[in-house]
Amino acid sequence: MRILMIQPNYHCGGAEIAGNWPPSWAAYIGGTLKAAGYTNIKFIDAMTEDLPDDVLAEIIRKNQPDVVLASAITPMIYKAQDTLRVAKESNPNCKTVLGGIHPTFMYSQILSEAPWIDYIVRGEGEEIVVNLMNVIAAGTDIKDRKDVLGIAYLEDGKVVATPAHPPIKDLDSLTPDWSILDWDKYIYIPLNTRVAVPNFARGCPFTCRFCSQWKFWRTYRVRNPKKFVDEIETLVKDHKVGFFILADEEPTINRDKFVAMCQELIDRKLDVHWGINTRVTDILRDAHLLPFYRKAGLVHISLGTEAATQMNLDRFRKETTMEENKRAIDMIKANGMVAEAQFIMGLENETVETIEETFQLARYWDADMVNWNMYTPWPFSELFEELGDKVEVRDYSKYNFVTPIMQPDHMDREDVLKGVLRSYARFYMRKSFLDYPFIKDPWKRKYMMGCLKAFLKMTASKRFYDIGRVKRKGLSTEVDLGFDESKIVSKEEIAKLKTTRPDLKADMDFGTISACGAPKQVSLNNVSACGAPKDLEISACGAPRDLPSLDSQQDDNTATRGMMKI
Ligand code: B12
Ligand code: SF4
Q1: What is the C-alpha separation between 178 and 181, in angstroms, rounded?
Q2: I need a surface site. Which of 106, 191, 212, 346 has the fewest CB within 10 A?
Q3: CA–CA separation, 95 vs 129, rounded Å?
Q4: d(C-alpha 104, C-alpha 122), whole Å
């Protein structure tokens, strides 16, 4: 069987600023398929190569794949739909498959908008895609698909979703094939070296209300540190990777395993630097270990500091305090690493004053880098539900952290964008002239100057934060946010859509409760005394269900919200 995987060609200025990043799903999904015997696999990174649809169509016509796979995060969804339409038109006999976070929750809307998509894979893809491929290869998919867990498809014009596939139990069973990627293309500009995005852990035991990552992976799992570092060794030695960031939501919560992973990196003397995203609370808990992390090559830590007021932190259910944020930044910097702070901007209570307050706070915290991300209401997050009819913009292509989606009560979206861009300009202007060139540690200085170079390059080409949409007209500045007007809905329309188009709604209960209200993946003897299914990830009290039982804790201290055995 000929299998073609495609990363859709979507761009928006933001995280791409630091270079071209490899789409890891292709290595994880492609590697699993190869291990299952599907060896005729090709991957096209239409995003990195900026491939237009007609070129893609030509490639598909020439290669005549039997199956075309694509991935989608929320802002990429329309481009992913287009990509699979191009595939179907170019080779009507091929089966088209879409996976990733957005389709996992929004399969109903997607299938009604893009009926040329044959299958949607919901959730973690490795095990599901093999099961699906087996029935496609056998030519029995139409008959057998109802038995493949974790997929959705159209049958007689109706959306069918099979019960969710359980999360992968043993992440060490993963067999990513990194050779599927063309490594020359993936360069991290700050260090001018190849970059990779491997997965050490999946999931997050916290439940922030604006986030959906914890819902997507469902349980927190972490890999065997030795086996993970084997993979890093392959990336460094075979593919000449010099920098990696962990794809993980929270790699540090299981301190024992994170420490073991660092020790393994030190012992093997791999000349590689790396970065992580993690929680402020873990940094504070592990402050004494920061020099050791630095020794293991960890140089860049991005923190979900999120808000400039405690009120918003609490609203997000972030379970951190303002004071903790500042302390974590100080500690990271004191240990020679780069501290990056992330803020969420543009909620309905944003004002000119709060934008300024956030800027002043960023200056006071004095993180090495700051990102002001626009609040993006993933339609499968809790905060989206709370905001309800206040989310009028349903043009998902703009759900990209750089476009104000919410209309604040006391200012225009355009002014939020201008205010945030002003914060960027002021913050980095100061850093460029008064901070980065004077950093004493030569390695960190070089790194920060490299980041600045990447930032300036993207700004000059007007790609950073998509600033091409901000235009000077005489003394004033005009902004065109470029929303698709047909995807802006009034409060009245939102109310009406709830009854007329229930398919637009996310499957908020993915992996837990089925459409009829019965738990999706429980048998009757798997129901707890209170009637709730035992395998829901989150218990009524908000604690993750996947905390290890006492007996399983002996050799595996999986996430316990900071209460680690050490
Ligand atoms: C690395 C990364 C990037 C890289 C992109 C690398 C690339 N070329 O894809 C960079 C830095 C460029 C980037 C940019 C952006 N990113 Co980003 N990124 C990540 C990050 C940290 C890791 C992604 C990853 O590799 N995961 C590991 C792989 C294995 O997981 P996965 O992709 O989900 O794939 C699994 C399943 O989803 C499924 N699957 C996925 N695709 C497919 C396809 C098929 C056919 C099948 C069967 C299965 C399947 O199976 C896979 C294995 O289980 C995540 C956060 C996170 N922790 O996941 C954010 C994340 C994906 N990014 C996000 C966003 C919003 C963006 C930006 C819009 C931000 C910005 N303005 O810069 C841009 C968009 C760029 C673009 N053009 O699309 C959001 C998406 C949220 C959402 N609901 O859509 C995330 C989740 C961060 C967050 N906090 O919410 N990002
Ligand atoms: S800690 Fe991070 S990954 Fe976890 S739920 Fe909160 S925002 Fe999401």
Answers
A1: 6
A2: 191
A3: 13
A4: 4
pTM for this prediction? 0.92
Q: How far apart are CA 446 and CA 190, in angstroms?
A: 8
CB-based burial label for 535 (10 Å; 0-12, 13-18, 19+): buried
Q: Residues enclosing ligand 2, CB less than 6 A? A: 204, 206-208, 211, 213-214, 249-250, 279, 304
Any atom of ligand 1 within 6 Å of the Cβ of 121? yes
Probe residue for ligand 2, chosen from 101, 202, 206 as the CB with the greatest number of ligand atoms within 8 Å: 206
Instruction: Determine phi and psi for 229, rounding to 5 degrees.
Output: -70, -25
pLDDT for 440-476, tens place per residue?
999 999 999 999 999 988 888 888 888 888 888 887 8
pLDDT (tens digit per residue) in 163-219: 999 999 999 999 999 999 999 999 999 999 999 999 999 999 999 999 999 999 999
Look at residue 23 and give its three-state secondary structure.
coil
Of the listed ligands, the closest to the CA of 211 is 2
Predicted local confidence at residue 28, as pLDDT: 98
- How far apart CA 318 and CA 304 sit, in angstroms, is 9
**Which residue's CA is minimally distant from atom 28 of ligand 1?**
25
| Secondary structure of residue 193 in the 3-state scheme | strand
- What are the start-end ranges of the H helices in 366-408? 382-387
Rg of the chain in Å (alpha carbons): 23
Task: Give the span between the Cα atoms of 191 and 108, in whole angstroms.
Answer: 42
Question: Does residue 111 contact residue 103 with C-beta atoms inside 8 Å?
Answer: no
Task: Give the position of tokens 């009560």.
Answer: 409
Long-range pairs of 389-394 with CB within 8 A, sequence gap ≥ 24: 389/491, 389/494, 389/495, 390/348, 391/494, 392/488, 392/489, 392/490, 392/491, 392/494, 393/483, 393/487, 393/488, 394/487, 394/488, 394/489, 394/504
Q: Enter the tokens of residue 183.
A: 């490594």
Q: Give residue 50's pLDDT band: very low, low, confident or very high (50, 70, 90).
A: very high
Q: Which of 25, 121, 177, 180 to mutate to test the pocket of ligand 1 (most atoms within 8 A of CB)?
A: 25
Distance CA(108)–CA(309), nearest Å, equals 37
Q: How far is the CA of 256 from the centre of ligand 1 (A)?
A: 27
Sorted by where each starts, the structural domains of the chain and their CATH numbers stand as 3-161 (3.40.50.2300), 186-479 (3.80.30.20)
Say if CB 221 and CB 176 are below 8 A apart. Answer: no
Local structure of 503: helix, strand or coil: helix
Query: Which long-range contacts link 386-394 to residues 24+ away (Cβ below 8 Å)?
Result: 386/209, 387/348, 388/494, 389/491, 389/494, 389/495, 390/348, 391/494, 392/488, 392/489, 392/490, 392/491, 392/494, 393/483, 393/487, 393/488, 394/487, 394/488, 394/489, 394/504
